[in-house]
Each structure stands twice: as C-alpha cells, then as structure tokens.
Amino acid sequence: MAQTTFSVRMDSEIKKQFDDFCEKVGMSTTTAFNLFARAVLRERRLPFEVSTVADPFYSESNLAHLRRGIAALNSGMGIERDTVKAPE
After folding, report:
1. At what angle do helices 29-43 and 12-24 cross, to 10 degrees?
2. Residue in 71, 68, 48, 52 with CA at minimum distance from that of residue 60
3. CB-CB contact of 36 with 29 (8 Å)
4. Sequence-separated (6 or more) residues with CB below 8 Å from residue 31
C-alpha cells in the first residue's frame, strides 16, 4: 500500500495533549489518525457525535436579563464609582 503525508494544523497545546494521550495508550499520533480515518470509512460517519448544543449563556431569557441590566446601567441606575469604598 502506497503511503502519503497528511498535514494538519491545530493549536500547539492541543497537539501536545493529544501526543501525550497517544503515548499513554501506547500508540503514535499517526496511528491514532489512521484509526480515525479507518473508522470514518468503515462506519460512513464520524465515529462520535457532533452537535450544536446551545450555550445557556445565549438563551433568550439570559439575553433578556442582560439587556435589562444594560438598559438600567445606561439610564444611570448603576452604582456610582464615587460611592463605592475600596476594601480595607
């Protein structure tokens, strides 16, 4: 079987963690990527779930709360800096 080179760009810290993981389980990074590619081809899908789980920070109720807070601050209902005492 002919071999080829496959280049991947990723965050250097993720690469280090991935390399460390592969070493701990007794395989090279190349072997791990080959296993991934073979699993994709065998199963005809990604071998893990990919989803767009909504971040609760961006929920409509939280955004409404943030908008109310911004409006209150913009209307002068926030704490004035002059009245806040620094901790002693």
Report:
1. 90
2. 68
3. no
4. 22
DSSP H helices, the chain, are 12-24, 29-43, 60-74
Contact at 8 Å (CB) between 22 and 29?
A: yes
Residues 6+ away with beta carbon under 8 Å from 27: 35
Tens of pLDDT, residues 15-43: 999 999 999 999 999 999 999 999 999 99
- For the chain, state the CA radius of gyration: 25
Are 31 and 22 spatial neighbours (Cβ–Cβ below 8 Å)?
yes
> What's the CA gap between 26 and 77, in Å, rounded?
60
Q: Which of 40, 19, 48, 41 is nearest to 31 (CA)?
A: 19
pLDDT for the residue numbered 80: 63
Alpha carbon distance 55, 14 (integer Å): 22
Domain range list for the chain: 12-43
